[in-house]
Amino acid sequence: MKKFLALLLALAMCLSLAACSGGSNTAETPADNAADSDAAADNAADSDAAADNTASEEPLTIQDVWPEGTTVYFDVAAKAGGGTDLYTRYLTQALTEVCPGVNFVVTNYDTAEVGAEHAKNADPDGLTLTTVACTSMDNYLSGASNVNPYEDYTIVGKMIDGGPQAIIASPDAPYHNLEELGAYIQEHPGEVVVGCALGGTSQVILYNIIDSLGEGLADSVNYVQCASEADKLTQTASKAIDIANCSIPNAQAYEADGKLTILGTIGPEVATLENMSELVGLELPETFATTVEQGIDFSWDAGYYIAVPAGTPDNICQAINSVLSQMSENEDFVAGMKTMASYANTPDLETSRADWTAEWEAQQQYMSDLGLNVRS
């Protein structure tokens, strides 16, 4: 928009200068007349271009962007069946209800980088979208991806604020909440083994939780590779690792069987024991109290966002957001988010972009703290 305004100002100045110089010429040669004719033609062409640009910024409806019969593609830079894929499919299913006649196609990519590149290089016409989250940021900041989600994409909406995760420990752990975990690490430096996706989001989460328990504690534990939820559950239950994170339903099921100790939960700032119980459909005991409820100054506000290629005109973005922002009122979408234990939140375009920027700035700091930010 700034570039557009600058263009209009430049054109206005050119036209103004041309008018002034024309008034001072009292005698013109044929060459001057020819030059003036060429300039007039150029000015006319510039005026037409300016008019076209102005028209391109006029407000659009979603019917202008996605007319009936249009196919809209959602790129998911992940395999089918994962969290990103399911979030996207719940969204597109709800979109079919409010955009009848529009065909939504979800495309999965076994190689995340291929999917990210495809979405980045798509035409900026609002017909190719992609789902992005803090994982996209971490992959870029760590050097695992060459797609910069903050610069190569433009946010058109937000789907969720995030979802709570349980912090789990081995069944006979000598600590039963996060404060006791901090005290134990203080007294036993170098002994606690933390299972996570090394260099990934789960390491960022667990590092910051432990760091919030006391200065230097996050560097007094051992981080080992343990990325999948199944591995985190089985290895914690077998005492191969001491600490990990996992979904609340799985954590409760394992705890009920005496296989785990629950130390608490980490989630967005809005999460409480009460609304988490409503969200997951389970009556959660006090052991699932959030970090904030346990007096720890750290929450994990990690939303999922919908983006389009950078350079997509803002009026197209606004039109798409006008539909996405309705999803918090769509019963099927909200129900789908609950099955994912996630807080549905689909704000306006300005708020969505502000939240995305805040997360980007936080992830840069988190990755730098871990020594994993190769982009700084």
Which percent range fits the helix content?
Answer: 40-55%
CATH homologous group name of the largest domain = Bordetella uptake gene, domain 1
Domain count: the total is 2
Quote the beta fraction: 15-25%
Enter the CATH topology name of the largest domain.
D-Maltodextrin-Binding Protein, domain 2
Q: Please report the number of helical segments.
A: 15
Low-confidence stretches: 1-55
Q: From the helix content, strand content and strand pairing, which structural class follows?
A: alpha/beta
Second rung of CATH, namely the architecture of the largest domain: 3-Layer(aba) Sandwich
Order of helices and strands: HHHEHEHEHHEEHEHEHEHEHEHHEH
Q: Compute the separation of the termini in Å.
A: 28 Å
Report on the biggest sheet: 6 strands, mixed
Give the strand order of the largest sheet, numbering strands 1, 2, ... along the chain: 2-1-3-10-4-11
Which whole number gives the mean pLDDT?
Answer: 87
Principal-axis shape: globular
What features would you highlight for this structure?
single chain; 376 residues; alpha/beta; D-Maltodextrin-Binding Protein, domain 2; six-stranded mixed beta sheet; three-stranded antiparallel beta sheet; 15 helices; 15% strand; globular
